[in-house]
Amino acid sequence: MRFILRRIGFYLIAFWVSITLNFLLPRFMPGDPISRMLSRSQDKMTAEQVLQLQKLFGMDDRPLIQQYVSYIGDVLTGNMGVSISRFPTPVSEVIASQIGWTLLLGATSLIIAALIGNLLGILAAWRRGSLIDSALPPFLIFIGSFPYFWLAMGALYLFGIVLGWFPLRHAYDSELDAGLSWAFISSVAYHLFLPALTIVLVSIGGWMLGMRNTMIATNSEDYITMAEAKGLRSRRIMLRYAARNAMLPSVTSFGMGLGFVVGGALLTETVFAYPGVGYQLLTAVQGLDYPLMQGLFLIITGAVLLANLLVDIVYVRLDPRVRTH
Amino acid sequence: MSRPQRWKPLRLAAAALVTGALALAGCSQPATQPSSPAAGGGDGKDYSDTPLTLPREDMGTFTRNFNPFSPNAAPMTQQAIYEPLLIFSATSGQTTPWLATEWKVGTDGKSVEFTIRPGVKWSDGEPLTADDVVYTFELQKKLLGGYEYVDKVSAADGKVTFSFNKPYSPALFEIGQHIIIPKHIWSEIKDPAKATNEKPVGSGPYTEITRFAAQAFELGKNSNYWQPDKQKIAGIKMLAFSGNDGANLAAVNGDVDWTDQFMPNIEKTFVSKDPAHRHYWFPPTGSMINWQLNTTKAPFNDPVVRKALSMAVDRDQVTKIGMNGYTGPADCTGLSGSYEKWKDTALRDKCEWTKLNVEQANQMLDQAGYTKDADGKRKLKDGKPFEFKFSVGATSSDWLSVANVIAQNMDAIGVTVKVDSPDWAQVVAGYEQGDFDSGIVWSPNDPAPYKYFAAMMSTRTVKPVGKKATENYQRFGDPRADALLDKFSGTSDEAAQKDAINQLQQLFDENAPVIPLFPGPEWGAYNDLRFTGWPNEQNPYASLSARSVQTVLILTSLEPRKG
Do B236 and B555 meet the contact criterion of CB atoms below 8 Å apart? Predict the structure, then answer.
């Protein structure tokens, strides 16, 4: 219990540091939101309109320290303000409309990649020198080292355009209304397949290799030899003895991965025109939309810290060594 | 959404790998001619119930915000839902009366009177009156400001009179092209700046939101529209894309009817898939794109240097390589194709400093005292090497190649130009503060070149270095320009206006405040398989932009094919 409390204390400090950075970093970037809008709209905006927007947005030109105090207050009360790049929609609404798709895409591909990758890693380490051990890891690493943009474009081209098996864009058929109908859910799954597949493809190799390597180290431990000497069934030794001990690093990476899911998958969203917060984050940064940036960073920070906390708690359960400290 | 595939997949080869492949292919293409609209028939299907489909490449997702005062309102808010009093089209040079049937500019240039079209109704059935117009400008001034020259707006007998505090002739189009909102709706809204106006009431042809999702939305007919015979298409459907590639893919695949984002090598990627139905038209009516030199710094404060640099620019190469041959070179009037009728043709025909002439450029620099050293590199008068930066945003790949072509061109006169391409925001911050060397910028593009010349040469738009400027980044001012601009804005007599603009062009020619490169083309491509009646070179009633004031002209001209 003391371990957990100590961790929570650490996380509170980490949270404060990161929200302070969230506040400071965007303000060190050159320009202001309106000149950014001007540079993006190019000839579509006149000098008068710039002044008009300054008036409309009511730009905050108080000293930084005052802005900081009210920012901390806003973070604690969950008030994220109004987005500038999507003015006048509140930040919470902008994020809420997209976060679901991000979680769906990110969590689905993370869980599938981690599950299959780890299982393959366990098998590869257990059957050293077999086809699955010698051929699969290099192949998956090969796939994984393609530039993601290229791989996704290629998949979209092959399966979307040439073969016509999958849709070219969006999260569901725009003729459908969102709801709990079979048509809608199947359309969502159908549209999800290709984007998720490409993410799984590029990330699975890392999972497999990581698991395989720790598993090989575990396999040479004395307790494995002991278990074999006792005549336990091979599968039992593989899963309950070797894999259980070898999976600790994977649990950490999974926890980290889960936290970063909320950051969105920018390239996937761009190639497959899939909704999500990744593109919103990009436009927020490009447009110096402080409120939206702060809102998104806050959620990402929160999610990463929370996921780490969960991993810590799971560790207490999985690894007795942690408990003895 | 998935439509049946019409085209053999292999023929779409270039489509998916848009970025790299097309950028390369673009270079080998000679200047493309707009394809002439052949009379291709439809495919025998009836499209009366099909919405007109357009992509929007700069919004990854849509937000339900139809507030016309918001800079981020959903697409079509200003085009299909709300309408202006009049519409000026640069491609045809015509002004079309819209919510106003006629207008009179006061003889002293200090007022404009609009007659509001009788019988127009809002989409909720209420009549549109002169009071709505008055209220629109009240709210505009309250929320956004602007229109400082407007003293008083008053309504009487279906007429609205705007009185000004000074003679100001550009007001007609500024006021006339402002969209009009219903008073009975907006006066009830508590905080109009922050309203998202989810169920808009407008006077336009397509005002009903029939479906709204973050990735796509549809607009249906306004049942009270004042031109019911012109609402021939069933509705408008917008699709969201986070970038040009996805939107271009949708166009190549035939999923959208009309698209106005940049498409590299359009002839090959888009038109060749179905030349009978697919067309594009890029009239040079966008704003003039200039190479601006910071005239507060030496040697750019010397007009001879500016002209010499301009003469070393190979504009044919710039437009061919940088702009895919989608536009042509600029001339020394500084005016883009949208100001065609204002151009001083006598001056245009004897332009010198906007024509490639490396020999003369070298001579001019030699005479002005910028001597070459043994390596053929020029020195400034203080002995430092003649080298400077060309700042352009990293994301504008077309302008970046323009900058690179120019940097190469400058080698011929012994001047070193370093292309500097950080993020646009940093580039613009440099322009605004006045600490840049040189850069590439757009310019104002209104019905009359008043603001254009004000931003080029007026002392009133010059901000001191270190103080934020939003126009006239080159910080050039000439009091003679101010006098001419006043002469223009102070008269409504066309001959006198033309005379003032001619003199401004001569002043531009004399000073070269910026180096004009090329008029920006107004992108636009369409597929007339499902709808006909598009504007093109033969019928230039509007440009193919889907986000300008004239867009409604196209929306009210299109007709579905009926088999």
Answer: yes
